[in-house]
Design a protein that fits this description.
Nucleoside Triphosphate Pyrophosphohydrolase, 3 helices
């Protein structure tokens, strides 16, 4: 359910990553949403009775055209969106197969190294998810 008691909007997404086909280095996929003219991680509102992980995987495929293998749970983002509390559950997810086709919601995707992805993201809260991904992929 997307709006439980308390009016919190529930959403889910992934920090989608792959190894570059050119040099094998880590790349992170960002989506551009023309409605907001922003760069973010693929995410979206949950459908009624949809689990957060199922919603995250669905949103990744809808927004990027890529299927993915989910990994570690990442921090949950909590913020106000258009005056309403929103809670977005995130996972690390490795892209497995697929092909991007522009649509009304997402007109571009880009694969970037972590530092460049962090700099391209519009919202600082999304930048923290890049650091969280790096910590699960490269534990100290």
């Amino acid at each position: 359910m997307t709006r439980p008691a308390g009016g919190v909007v529930l959403a889910a997404g992934c920090v989608l990553w792959r190894r570059s086909p050119f040099d094998g280095e880590l790349e992170i996929c960002l989506v551009h949403r023309p409605k907001y003219d922003d760069w973010s991680h693929p995410k979206g509102k949950l459908k009624r009775a949809e689990s957060p992980l199922d919603g995250a995987l669905r949103e990744v495929e809808e927004e990027t055209g890529h299927r993915c293998a989910p990994g570690a749970r990442l921090p949950t983002a909590r913020y106000l969106a258009q005056g309403r509390p929103k809670e977005v559950s995130y996972w690390a997810a490795e892209a497995t197969e697929g092909h991007f086709t522009p649509n009304a919601e997402v007109d571009r995707i880009i694969w970037l190294p972590p530092a460049a992805a962090r700099n391209r993201l519009t919202q600082p809260r999304d930048q923290q998810l890049v650091d969280a991904l790096l910590s699960v992929l490269n534990p100290a």
